[in-house]
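It is worth pausing here to work through a concrete case rather than discussing structure prediction in the abstract. The textbook approach is simple: state the sequence, then state the predicted structure, then interpret. We follow exactly that order.
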Amino acid sequence: QVQLVESGGGLVQPGGSLRLSCAASGFTFSSYVMSWYRQAPGKERELVAEITSTGGSTNYADSVKGRFTISRPAKNTLYLQMNSLKPEDTAVYYCSAAGGLFRSWGQGTQVTVSS
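Step two, the predicted structure:
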Protein backbone atom coordinates (compact mmCIF):
# COMPACT_ATOMS: atom_id res chain seq x y z
CA GLN A 1 0.00 0.00 0.00
CA VAL A 2 1.01 3.64 -0.34
CA GLN A 3 3.29 4.81 2.45
CA LEU A 4 4.95 8.16 3.12
CA VAL A 5 7.18 8.23 6.19
CA GLU A 6 8.68 11.53 7.35
CA SER A 7 11.73 11.87 9.57
CA GLY A 8 14.25 14.49 10.63
CA GLY A 9 12.12 16.76 12.76
CA GLY A 10 13.14 17.97 16.19
CA LEU A 11 13.96 20.94 18.38
CA VAL A 12 16.29 23.57 16.95
CA GLN A 13 17.30 27.08 17.97
CA PRO A 14 16.33 30.10 15.87
CA GLY A 15 18.76 30.46 12.99
CA GLY A 16 19.48 26.76 12.92
CA SER A 17 18.92 24.15 10.24
CA LEU A 18 17.13 20.85 9.82
CA ARG A 19 16.68 18.44 6.92
CA LEU A 20 13.42 16.57 6.67
CA SER A 21 13.21 13.32 4.73
CA CYS A 22 10.23 11.46 3.30
CA ALA A 23 10.53 7.82 2.31
CA ALA A 24 7.91 6.79 -0.25
CA SER A 25 6.71 3.33 -1.18
CA GLY A 26 3.76 1.58 -2.78
CA PHE A 27 3.42 3.86 -5.80
CA THR A 28 5.43 5.09 -8.76
CA PHE A 29 7.27 7.92 -7.03
CA SER A 30 8.63 9.43 -10.23
CA SER A 31 5.13 9.98 -11.63
CA TYR A 32 3.79 12.30 -8.95
CA VAL A 33 4.16 15.85 -7.73
CA MET A 34 5.60 15.81 -4.24
CA SER A 35 5.01 18.44 -1.62
CA TRP A 36 5.72 19.48 1.95
CA TYR A 37 2.89 20.98 3.99
CA ARG A 38 2.86 22.17 7.57
CA GLN A 39 0.27 22.78 10.24
CA ALA A 40 0.85 24.91 13.30
CA PRO A 41 -1.41 24.69 16.38
CA GLY A 42 -4.71 26.43 15.75
CA LYS A 43 -3.92 27.05 12.09
CA GLU A 44 -4.87 25.42 8.82
CA ARG A 45 -2.49 23.17 6.95
CA GLU A 46 -0.49 25.18 4.42
CA LEU A 47 1.69 24.38 1.46
CA VAL A 48 5.38 24.93 2.16
CA ALA A 49 7.01 23.67 -1.04
CA GLU A 50 6.30 21.44 -4.00
CA ILE A 51 8.33 19.84 -6.77
CA THR A 52 7.24 18.40 -10.10
CA SER A 53 7.52 14.74 -10.94
CA THR A 54 10.74 15.31 -12.89
CA GLY A 55 12.21 17.66 -10.31
CA GLY A 56 12.52 20.34 -12.94
CA SER A 57 10.31 22.90 -11.25
CA THR A 58 9.70 23.95 -7.67
CA ASN A 59 7.34 26.29 -5.88
CA TYR A 60 7.61 27.78 -2.38
CA ALA A 61 5.44 29.65 0.05
CA ASP A 62 6.56 33.27 0.30
CA SER A 63 7.33 32.78 3.98
CA VAL A 64 10.05 30.20 3.26
CA LYS A 65 11.54 31.41 -0.05
CA GLY A 66 15.29 31.69 0.14
CA ARG A 67 15.45 29.60 3.33
CA PHE A 68 13.96 26.21 2.41
CA THR A 69 14.89 23.91 -0.47
CA ILE A 70 12.83 20.94 -1.67
CA SER A 71 14.53 18.17 -3.62
CA ARG A 72 14.00 14.61 -4.83
CA PRO A 73 17.51 13.49 -5.76
CA ALA A 74 17.14 9.82 -4.97
CA LYS A 75 14.63 7.15 -5.89
CA ASN A 76 11.59 7.23 -3.60
CA THR A 77 13.03 9.97 -1.34
CA LEU A 78 11.94 13.57 -0.85
CA TYR A 79 13.87 16.15 1.18
CA LEU A 80 13.24 19.55 2.67
CA GLN A 81 16.35 21.45 3.69
CA MET A 82 15.37 24.16 6.14
CA ASN A 83 17.87 26.91 6.98
CA SER A 84 17.63 30.11 9.02
CA LEU A 85 14.72 28.65 10.96
CA LYS A 86 12.38 30.98 12.80
CA PRO A 87 9.99 30.37 15.70
CA GLU A 88 7.09 30.82 13.28
CA ASP A 89 8.30 27.74 11.37
CA THR A 90 7.21 25.62 14.32
CA ALA A 91 4.65 23.12 13.05
CA VAL A 92 4.01 19.51 12.13
CA TYR A 93 5.43 18.97 8.66
CA TYR A 94 3.74 16.54 6.28
CA CYS A 95 4.95 14.91 3.09
CA SER A 96 2.36 14.54 0.33
CA ALA A 97 2.11 12.89 -3.07
CA ALA A 98 -0.45 14.01 -5.63
CA GLY A 99 -1.51 13.33 -9.19
CA GLY A 100 -4.93 13.35 -10.79
CA LEU A 101 -7.38 12.05 -8.19
CA PHE A 102 -4.56 10.57 -6.11
CA ARG A 103 -3.47 12.25 -2.89
CA SER A 104 -1.62 10.65 -0.02
CA TRP A 105 -0.18 12.00 3.23
CA GLY A 106 2.46 10.95 5.68
CA GLN A 107 1.95 10.93 9.46
CA GLY A 108 3.94 14.12 9.97
CA THR A 109 7.07 15.11 11.86
CA GLN A 110 7.25 17.82 14.52
CA VAL A 111 9.57 20.78 14.03
CA THR A 112 10.00 23.13 16.97
CA VAL A 113 12.09 26.28 16.70
CA SER A 114 12.79 27.74 20.10
CA SER A 115 15.60 29.05 22.25
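Step three, interpretation. The chain has a mean pLDDT of 95. The chain has no helices and eleven strands.
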